[in-house]
Amino acid sequence: MEDLVIKNAALDYFSGRATPLQKQAIEAWLRNPSNHEQYYQWLHDWELRHLQAAVAWQGAFARTRDRVDQDSREEVPSSPQMKTIHWRHTYSRPMVAAVLLFAFLGLSVYATRENIFYKTSKAAYGETKQITLPDGSRVSLNANSSVRYPRFGFGQGTRQIELSGEADFEIERTPNRRQFIVSTATGLKITVLGTEFTVFARPRGSQVILRTGKVALQTTQVPEDQPIVMSPGDIVAIGTDGKLSRSHTSRPEHYSSWKDHMITLDRTSLREITAILEDTYGFPIELKDPVLGNKTATGLLPVQNADTALELIADMFDISFTRQGNKVIFTD
User: Fold this and answer.
1) Residue 253 — φ and ψ, nearest 5°?
2) Is beta strand 244-248 parallel, antiparallel or unpaired with respect to 262-269?
3) d(Cα 192, Cα 178) in Å, to the nearest integer?
4) Phi, psi of 225, deg, nearest 5
């Protein structure tokens, strides 16, 4: 019952018909961050029913925010009473109402269209994170990685997300067989229907490893090239020229072992291992002697804890390591 009262007050607010008491109720309700998502949904639904008023929302917000900021710099209030702002008739009343509410609460970072209509999930350094998308697809994020996707309507049209870093995907098939598209800042575009695959998309390189199903892969650098259709076990990497190259593995699951806080080593060089640790934990690693980087190892390396991983690497390669601030140095 309380939510219905708040919703009706919010809809009146968007329409410019809210009473002072309704405004106070909404402001108090929004002080709880857990209510922001519901507010965004109501605003989104209202905008869909009032498209003409919604067109100028973002511009109105930017102008209003600038005006409020300017007023704050030019005048220091002599009393705790709130300053009255006179709005020009050129502003849309519903949008001004929504903007004023966020300005009052100091929530401008949430009020931009980007944050209202898109959601970003992140995994920090040293952690992995599992999320379930609105269509039921599951995404496992490796450390220092993120995905961005629409808050509303995901799966009703083409399912599209943006990836930065590294992630493993288990895609749900939809009754209408909607495509699922993953794009990366490194230029990869992966189109799937229902499959399991891992994407590595970091500044030092990009590749896709397919476990089950089928995907079509192309790059934004060379969009005229025909997509590569991958089969299970395929590994496709993108070169510095934007060209794609294909190889094959009999153990594609090894490339997502980080989900279990493990790195699968298969004659993996110490140079590659240190790069993985830098991606995972965010600290720089130096090999005092570059020749050390050519040493290789095979096996499973636990990486749930940075200190433990460094000690195991030192034992594995019979070398030593020291710390200098946030930097790690391996020596022979």
Assistant:
1) -65, -20
2) unpaired
3) 9
4) -65, 145
